[in-house]
Amino acid sequence: MSRDDPEKAGTTAASAPTINPAALAYVKAGPKQLYIDGKWTAAKSGETFDVIDPSTADVMVAVATGDAADIDLAVAAARKAFRDPSWARISPHQRSRYLLTIADIIERNADELAVIQAIDIGMVLAQSRGLIATMPDVFRYFAGAATKVMGSTYPSDGSSLTYTLREPLGVVGAIIPWNSPAFAFAWKVAPALACGNTVVLKPAEQAPLLPLRLAELIEEADLPPGVLNIVPGLGAGAGDALAKHPGVNKINFTGSTGVGKGILAASTGNLKKVTLELGGKSPNIIFPDADLSKAIPAALMGFAAGAGQICVAGTRIFVHEDVYGEVAAAIAQAAQGMKTGNPLDPGTDVGPIISQKQFDRVSDYIKVGQDEGATLRTGGQAHAGSGYFVQPTVFEDVTDQMRIVREEIFGPVAALIPFKDENDAVFRANDTEFGLAAAVWTKDISRAHTVARALEAGTVWINTIYELDVMVPYGGYKMSGIGRELGPESIEANTQLKTVVARF
Ligand code: ADP
User: Fold this and answer.
1) Are 6 and 24 in contact (CB under 8 A)?
2) How far apart are CA 369 and CA 399, in angstroms?
3) Which of 112, 195, 205, 277 is catalytic?
4) Which of 250, 391, 266, 247 is nearest to 332 (CA)?
5) Active-site choice (112, 195, 205, 311)
6) Are the CB atoms for 394 and 378 separated by under 8 Å?
7) Ligand 1 atom at shortest distance from the alpha carbon of 234
8) Is residue 4 assigned to a domain?
9) CATH of the domain at 269
């Protein structure tokens, strides 16, 4: 389906609501430019790259390919803005007001932003709306935090004063992925600005449209030029240049574990600070006393929402052997009934995989699973050509050593694994190099908290999944990351302490 006809775009039912026309117009209008020092500009090289609609495999729009030369300009602009009194010397209340204004702008334009994100990343519109709806609260939380960035005073001998100042780091480079640009943008930009840093953000090349449109809309907040810069480009180009840049004080990265390792290595050039939010292979553990009417749909959404392209996706579903048959049958049947299709269509349950490359990767894993001897309980169909769709897929009869159990697939593919008892479940759940999230379903509160404590994961959900809140820290154990975002930890992660000793 072409998006040239806004009346028809994304709708099949006669009664389907009109899709936000501003969003449809934005997605087509190009080429998009870089946003550096408060101005929109072409890449120095004049190059552009095509953004592909994952639902149709058609080219949607061209975007300027920022590279090292553009990153140099953006970092210089961000450094200048960082030192400029119009940003460096403003009161915390003024910083707070900037963030509150940005929150209002996002809220006012939420529908347009949700549609742009849904089209660009192929996320089902209702889910995209849900993610966009969280953004204003993130900016408001950090607007509050801006007036509470505090140091301490220390005991002294009466003829001296010792205190700490909690100061911004400087230029923060944000490198974000395609799977959740709304989260990534808000989680990285809001705390960085709240603490007085300036930002150079590189969107993912597969999905740069939401960050670019946000930058356009946020112009209304009148941030001083250079405080927020957006440089789309390729990972090996703009991304690598930002990660290595000697003028960048911190990289805040969300993406794959492999690239995260490279970012950490690149940081050694100037020992910039690094926060990494990386991949996962999250366990979802269902005990026999669980409320299955909640645990089963949650397990399904846990691996199928966002077509499984979610870092915290619960792709290893451990089910106690007493209820395994019932749970496996219900999950398989529900997965089979899920409708893949255009994310703007209200009848769609699962949108496309982001790109041909990811589609090939997910398809390959489905084949690997079968070659390894796992049983394909349902799904397995993948059809590309016009859009990159994969039916939610469930494997059974897996072993703990199979690649489909050990490696992050980043598609709607889960393994169902029976377990005997609590120890067995915990041991196998922890038998992974990742540690991003985990879920446990039981009515026994002792067991729930014992298991939560035993699981090696940055977030553990009890009788729920996917609950993230800006008030609460988020991040990974083991190879799922370094550092934390959100909550008070975000303030620490975006500041540094200066100790001042005065003698009189
Ligand atoms: P995903 O699996 O979500 O695509 P990636 O780790 O490949 O995750 O990409 C996340 C972000 O990292 C994207 O913005 C991408 O362009 C960027 N990126 C990819 N390779 C590099 C690299 N070598 N250096 C810096 N950034 C990179």
Assistant:
1) yes
2) 10
3) 277
4) 391
5) 311
6) yes
7) 16
8) no
9) 3.40.605.10
E strands in 386-489: 389-390, 393-396, 413-419, 437-441, 459-462, 481-482
Q: Is residue 11 part of a domain?
A: no
Q: State yes or no: pLDDT of 371 exceeds 90.
A: yes
Residues 164 and 96 in one domain: yes
Tell me the pLDDT tens digit for each residue of 135-189: 999 999 999 999 999 999 999 999 999 999 999 999 999 999 999 999 999 999 9
Q: Which domain holds residue 113?
A: 20-278+481-500
Whether 402 is in a domain gets the answer: yes
pLDDT per residue over 253-296, tens digit each?
A: 999 999 999 999 999 999 999 999 999 999 999 999 999 999 99
Q: What is the helix (H) or strand (E) element at residue 35, kind and residue range? A: strand 34-36
- The count of domains in the chain is 2
Say which CATH number the domain at 401 has.
3.40.309.10
Q: Which residues form ligand 1's pocket by a CB distance below 6 Å?
A: 175-179, 202, 204-205, 235-236, 239-240, 243, 255-256, 259, 262-263
- pTM listed for this prediction: 0.95
What digits encode the pLDDT tens for the residues 396-411?
A: 999 999 999 999 999 9
CA of 53 to the centre of ligand 1 (A): 19
Determine the residue type at 255. G
